[in-house]
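hey can u check if this looks right to u? its 155 residues, i copy pasted from the old doc so theres a chance i mangled smth
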Amino acid sequence: MDNIEVKDIMNLILVKLDNLEKNQEEMKGTIGKIENRLDNVEGRLENIENRLDNVEGRLENIESRLDNVEERLDNVENRLENIEERLDNVEERLDNVENRLENIEERLDNVEERLDNVESNQETIKKYIASAEDTLKKVEYDHKIIERMKTAMCI
């Protein structure tokens, strides 16, 4: 009986060994699948790392360009401030020119008024001169008559 039990135990051990071998084969297949998936994940991870490096490089490029844009913007702001200062100066100069022009216009109005007065006085003087000439002609005429009368009396 001991023989039967040992045989049974051996058979049982053989069955278990067969099961273990099957399980081992299944495990090898599963491990192979896991290794394939792990290789796939590692490949994808490398791809992601490469893409991340690319993105970081592009980001550095963008940051550099942004620094350049900020510098150019500062330049533009400085130029705009200079233009605004020059515009203020031009506006001030324009105000001065306008004030001078107003003064000149006032002086011109005064000169025109004085010229009108001179022209009016000139007309009055012309009338006086014409009247004086008429009076002088009358006096000369009267003088001639008196001279004729003197001459006629002396004869």
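Residues 2-154 form the longest helix (153 residues).
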